[in-house]
């Protein structure tokens, strides 16, 4: 998830090579995305491991193994335990809280400090979880990981976009999302391998410490970005830094642009006040609704709970982890497809196709579960049915991963001009984290109550969001950020909010 301010579109093309610096930058950034994905994907498998459940959630274990029906007849309710869900979802609550502090620290103290703090949180969180002796320690570990996510999602994408030459800046936005999906896949693979080993869950949770160490070391040895140095008054250092990262001596033009952008940014002292003005209504609406809708596609039900869900549906413990590996792989491949299609076919086509495909899959999955398990939650699938179900779940993950997954981060970041960018991004990140937390926390309870209807519930939201996109989102493909106003101005609905004089005023919207 590219959670920070990533400027896309616009920007003049400057000279500059892809230097060793830029490559190292990408590796560090890769660690930030990877860690987030890893922590996102690891819990599903861990919470379906017997030894883990026995140690921390013995009641869930008893319910799960109980065939007599004394504790719970319904397959739908086997894992319904608020503490178990808190283990998964507490991370997002912590990330939400941390992102409020992280944005000021990133601005005042620089990107690298913020990345370092994030890395340390990740490191301590992973170790606490790996050595956990009780549920409290486990959840405190998750909260620390969440702080790590809050800091890294703020600083890493920003660090990346400021270090990279402008021409590869846009690609990096989805590149960060790709790293998240790879992190999820690695987590699934590790869980699959370790499920059979004694105390395998400790290793699963502890391995996150490795990329955390790389991130911390990276943050110690790397320099801060020129933009951040200028922002903090270190002009000469910034110029030298720019020469080093671009690998050329003449960086005058780009340097001047950075200085101008920083001056402009200082004038824009109150992005929060700006964004509530009527003329920014489209940005306010999209930065709030896109993350909300993204979470109500129901994707994290699969990302967090696939192994649990598959086990509920009668795939054995190993088979369910294997299935999670398959969905994880589909997620990565479909994100790569998105990278290649987003500027060719445009955002709208991907959103609309993705929405329709998700809906069809949700209806199919809901109907199959309804047929086999009904409202009583007692039943089982034949082998053929299991494969068909897996096919629909994969098709659903693929459609999310080339639409709402990356676009949920890309679109809000490319529609916000400088004077509202920080507020727009903060709203986007917080709304996303808040609803990720809510879905993570209530899913198993909803499954217990709504039963197969849960899939239709999310399907209903997919219908609403697809209609919303069809009517309200103009195409933003290849539109430089400074020309975005004319796009709103010619839209049937948003035109009423945009004064004519905004259309031609280029508001110095160079990349931050
Ligand atoms: C979403 C996450 C989700 C991930 C799956 C991201 O865009 O924000 O909530 O888990 O995609 O790949």
UniProtKB/TrEMBL annotation:
CDD domains reported in the protein's UniProt record: MFS_STP (cd17361)
Q: Which GO terms describe its molecular function?
A: monosaccharide transmembrane transporter activity; symporter activity
- Whether rRNA processing counts among this entry's keywords is no
What keyword terms does UniProt attach to this protein? Membrane, Sugar transport, Symport, Transmembrane, Transmembrane helix, Transport
What is the first-listed, main subcellular location in coarse terms? Answer: membrane
* Top-level lineage group: Eukaryota
Query: Per its UniProt record, what Pfam families does this chain match?
Result: Sugar_tr (PF00083)
Asked if the record carries the keyword GTP-binding, the reply is no
Database matches in SUPFAM superfamilies? MFS general substrate transporter
| Bilayer topology annotation | Multi-pass membrane protein
Report the locations given in the UniProt record. Answer: Membrane
Query: Which family does the similarity line name?
Result: Belongs to the major facilitator superfamily. Sugar transporter (TC 2.A.1.1) family.
Q: What is this protein called?
A: Major facilitator superfamily (MFS) profile domain-containing protein
Q: Which organism is it from?
A: Arachis hypogaea (Peanut)
């Amino acid at each position: 998830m590219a959670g920070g301010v990533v400027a896309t579109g616009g920007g003049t093309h400057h000279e500059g090579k892809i230097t060793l610096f830029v490559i190292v930058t990408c590796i560090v950034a890769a660690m930030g995305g990877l860690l987030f994905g890893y922590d996102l994907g690891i819990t599903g498998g861990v919470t379906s491991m017997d030894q883990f459940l026995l140690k921390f959630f013995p009641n869930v274990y008893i319910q799960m193994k109980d065939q007599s029906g004394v504790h719970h007849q319904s397959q739908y309710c086997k894992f319904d335990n608020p503490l178990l869900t808190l283990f998964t979802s507490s991370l997002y609550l912590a990330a939400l809280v941390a992102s409020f502090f992280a944005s000021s620290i990133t601005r005042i103290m620089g990107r690298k400090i913020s990345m370092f703090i994030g890395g340390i949180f990740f490191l301590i969180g992973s170790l606490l979880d790996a050595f956990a002796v009780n549920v409290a320690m486990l959840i405190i570990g998750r909260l620390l990981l969440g702080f790590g996510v809050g800091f890294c999602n703020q600083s890493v994408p920003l660090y990346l976009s400021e270090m990279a030459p402008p021409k590869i800046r846009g690609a990096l936005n989805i590149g960060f999302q790709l790293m998240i999906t790879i992190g999820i896949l690695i987590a699934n693979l590790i869980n699959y391998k370790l499920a059979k080993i004694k105390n395998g869950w400790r290793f699963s949770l502890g391995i996150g410490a490795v990329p955390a160490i790389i991130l911390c070391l990276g943050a110690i040895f790397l320099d801060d970005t020129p933009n951040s140095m200028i922002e903090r008054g270190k002009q000469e250092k910034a110029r030298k830094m720019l020469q080093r990262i671009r690998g050329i001596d003449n960086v005058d033009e780009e340097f001047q642009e950075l200085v101008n952008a920083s001056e402009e940014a200082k004038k824009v002292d109150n992005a929060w006040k700006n964004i509530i003005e009527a003329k920014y209504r489209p940005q306010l609406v999209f930065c709030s609704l896109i993350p909300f809708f993204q979470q109500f596609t129901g994707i994290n039900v699969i990302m967090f709970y696939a192994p649990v869900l598959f086990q509920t549906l009668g795939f054995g413990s190993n088979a369910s982890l294997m299935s999670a590996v398959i969905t994880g792989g589909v997620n990565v491949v479909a994100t790569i497809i998105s990278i290649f299609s987003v500027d060719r076919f445009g955002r709208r086509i991907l959103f609309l196709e993705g929405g329709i495909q998700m809906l069809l899959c949700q209806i199919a999955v809901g109907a199959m579960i309804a047929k086999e398990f009904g409202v009583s939650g007692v039943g089982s699938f034949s082998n053929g049915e299991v494969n068909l179900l897996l096919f629909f779940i994969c098709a659903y993950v693929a459609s999310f991963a080339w639409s709402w997954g990356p676009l949920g981060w890309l679109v809000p970041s490319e529609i916000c001009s400088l004077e509202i960018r920080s507020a727009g991004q903060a709203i986007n990140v917080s709304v996303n984290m808040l609803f990720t937390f809510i879905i993570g926390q209530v899913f198993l309870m909803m499954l217990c109550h709504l039963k197969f209807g849960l899939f239709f519930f999310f399907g209903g939201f997919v219908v609403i969001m697809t209609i919303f996109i069809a009517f309200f989102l103009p195409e933003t493909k290849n539109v430089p950020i400074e020309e975005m106003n004319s796009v709103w101005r010619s839209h049937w609905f948003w035109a009423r909010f945009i004064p004519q004089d905004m259309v031609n005023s280029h508001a110095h919207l160079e990349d931050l």
